[in-house]
């Protein structure tokens, strides 16, 4: 099977398994796991922050950050297409009493600055929830995986900071963004006070994410992690794979981007499929099928019969993600399978 559903399907490398077997460990809730401590220092340095916290998932990274930033009943302004708003089970509202306030996302994964400004300038009147946080996402998953421009991030940070609000960046795929923007993760994270990123997507580690910020912020997030049940004991076993991920798997993401461009070009030539543009394409291709839901279901099933898995986005759109283990040969085979499946699903 050529599995293009997500970069989360990546398997740990042999070097990761080796590092896991040899990892020096301790009780991390006591702060005594040397491997976790090392990963947290590495992570903080790579995104240019003071401290880092290892958590089981990107969802918990964002949730711990939101809980550390926002009081109950305060509002967090974030993209209407943000992963945190749509795909994290409403945790910030359910467990933090946080009013998630969606701001329109543009196709480029940016926030509509007029809408954001409108939310920020509501009077300090008893009618309104007080503001607690502004959140960004880069790369932007639901906006075709595009990398968001640094100039936009800086504009959002200026607005938020002018209102004395912190900025959190959901940087689940921040290293993909850094490659697409030809910059570093630290320069991207500079616009944000706090940042989360995933080890278990394109970086191919089996488990884990980090949330980074000031030492004082990370201390609060650490308490939230404990409250959420994310305080793990000999977590160095999995952190060891994360260290290998940061050491060896970042630069190769450029290959995933080249493969995604080839995939987008190939799918774009197939009658019945419409590829969404991405201003700065990373490792994702979102495309829509002509002919509505029935034809789309038939197309996806036909593709599966031909050995290719893709993810569904609503009723007639799909997402294909390139990752470690998907080379140019797999991309070419996936395009050929899509052409054949499209002929069957959309032909007469
Ligand atoms: C995957 C993802 C997350 C959450 O990560 P999990 O580890 O799956 O919980 C958060 N934000 C974005 C943009 C993501 O793509």
What does this molecule look like?
This protein is α/β, with parallel strands linked by helices and 348 residues long. The chain folds into two domains: 10-248, Type I PLP-dependent aspartate aminotransferase-like (Major domain) (Aspartate Aminotransferase, domain 2), CATH 3.40.640; 252-346, Aspartate Aminotransferase, domain 1 (Alpha-Beta Complex), CATH 3.90.1150. The chain contains 14 helices and 13 strands. It has a seven-stranded mixed sheet with strand order 2-8-7-6-5-3-4, with helices on both faces. A hairpin with an 8-residue loop joins strand 9 and strand 10 (284-289). The longest helix has 19 residues, at 328-346. The protein is globular. The model has no long low-confidence stretch (mean pLDDT 97). The chain binds pyridoxal-5'-phosphate (PLP). Pyridoxal-5'-phosphate (PLP) binds at residues 57-59, 62, 83, 137, 141, 170, 172, 198, 200, 209.
Short description:
The chain is of the alpha/beta class. The chain has helices at residues 14-22, 34-46, 58-69, 83-86, 91-96, 113-120, 150-162, 174-180, 185-189, 215-227, 236-248, 253-268, 292-305, 328-346; strands spanning 2-3, 51-55, 75-79, 99-103, 131-137, 167-170, 194-198, 209-213, 273-275, 284-289, 308-309, 311-313, 317-321.
């Amino acid at each position: 099977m050529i599995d293009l559903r997500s970069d989360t399907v990546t398997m740990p490398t042999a070097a990761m398994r080796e590092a896991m077997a040899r990892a020096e460990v301790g009780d991390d809730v006591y702060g005594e796991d040397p491997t976790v401590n090392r990963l947290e220092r590495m992570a903080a340095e790579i995104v240019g922050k003071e401290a880092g916290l290892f958590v089981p998932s990107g969802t918990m990274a964002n949730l711990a950050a939101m809980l550390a930033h926002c009081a109950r009943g305060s509002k967090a302004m974030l993209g209407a297409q943000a992963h945190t708003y749509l795909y994290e089970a409403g945790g910030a509202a359910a467990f933090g009493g946080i009013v998630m306030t969606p701001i329109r996302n543009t196709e480029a994964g940016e926030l509509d600055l007029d809408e954001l400004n409108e939310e920020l300038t509501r009077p300090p009147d008893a009618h309104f929830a007080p503001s607690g946080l502004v959140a960004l996402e880069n790369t932007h998953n639901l906006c075709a995986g595009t990398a968001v421009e640094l100039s936009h991030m800086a504009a959002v940070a200026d607005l938020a900071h002018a209102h004395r609000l912190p900025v959190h960046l959901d940087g689940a795929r921040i290293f993909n963004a850094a490659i697409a923007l030809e910059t570093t993760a630290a320069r991207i994270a500079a616009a944000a006070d706090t940042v989360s990123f995933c080890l278990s997507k394109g970086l191919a580690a089996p488990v884990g994410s980090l949330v980074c910020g000031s030492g004082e912020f990370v201390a609060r997030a650490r308490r939230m992690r404990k409250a959420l049940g994310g305080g793990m004991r000999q977590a160095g076993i999995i952190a060891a794979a994360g260290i290998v991920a940061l050491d060896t798997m970042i630069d190769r993401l450029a290959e995933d981007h080249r493969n995604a461009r080839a995939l987008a070009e190939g799918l774009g030539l197939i009658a019945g499929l419409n590829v969404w543009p991405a201003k700065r394409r990373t490792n994702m291709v979102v495309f829509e099928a002509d002919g509505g839901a029935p034809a789309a279901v038939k197309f996806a099933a036909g593709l599966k019969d031909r050995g290719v898995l893709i993810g569904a986005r609503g009723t007639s759109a799909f997402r294909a993600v390139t990752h470690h283990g998907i080379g140019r040969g797999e991309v070419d085979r996936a395009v050929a399978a899509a052409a054949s499946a499209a002929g069957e699903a959309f032909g007469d």
